[in-house]
Amino acid sequence: MAERTGVAAEAETVPDGGGGAVVSVGDGWDSDDEGGRRPEDEAGKGVVAAFGQTLKTLRLRAGMERAELGKRLGYSASTIASFEQGRRIPSPRTIDRADEVVEAGGLLCLWKEQLERAQYPVFFQGMAGLEKEAIELLSYSTLVFNGLLQTEEYMRAVLAMRRPVLDQETIEQRVAARLARQEIFERWPAPLLSFVTGEAVLRHRYGGKDVLRGQLEHILLIGQRRNVEIQVMPLDGEDNAGVDGPFTIVTRKDCKKFVYAEAQGTSALQTGQEQTTLAAARYGIIRSQALGPRESLDFVEGLLGSL
């Protein structure tokens, strides 16, 4: 994923005709060129490379081979090489443990905030920050499950279908980033989370039957949480206020609302009061047109039983 400290500084703001602003935040989350790496991500890549060089320097100072450090951290020597060469970003917990093992005295831990931002493309850093601050998140999906709901296997299947194709290191980085975003489910106080998903999304067998089965099982588990409501927009419904496509509404603690949307390689973050109010109203209509939460979970169970 906050928004005012990341995206706005990078984006051009233009009037939306409603007294607010539409902030263009560049290319969409799943869009890529040049093998999955974009020019605007060079700064983030530099941060990752600098961290990797620091890790390598401290490892050598401690007189350790990569295999030894990997063994103590629970990784292979090749994974340690990926960290040191800036091809993968370690988790915050791994950074803490590595700092302790190489006796860095907190030096590696200083990189955690920068690395957290660097794991997302520049255009998504603001949204990632908003997710961390959200007291309410409302999401309508029509193509794939929201990243917050995806299993690791589903993530890999979707990312593997990107065209042009993504290199394996980019896929691994994006999987790790999406998994990190799912910490929103463990936060306390728990944010209010609502997901309306088109029925077609629940039927697409991206990655095969087993991947879909695992994804649907995961949806049922997530749907049991008291702060989460999952609804299905049925294919046979005659009304759907979401025909313009998927979008997400995030509300911060200060009651400021943001609307995020992506389509065909572009993404935008709407911040104007009129636009966010209308989006929230539209989402309310979508929820009323979808199956109710209990009925939706029963529907998912039925699909699962038919696989």
UniProtKB/TrEMBL annotation:
Gene3D superfamilies: lambda repressor-like DNA-binding domains. GO terms for molecular function: DNA binding. Signal peptide: none annotated. InterPro entries: Cro/C1-type_HTH, DUF5753, Lambda_DNA-bd_dom_sf. Pfam families: DUF5753, HTH_31. Residues 55-95 form the HTH cro/C1-type domain. Residues 34-44 have a biased composition (Basic and acidic residues). Residues 1-44 are annotated as: Disordered. This is Transcriptional regulator. The lineage of its organism: Bacteria, Bacillati, Actinomycetota, Actinomycetes, Kitasatosporales.
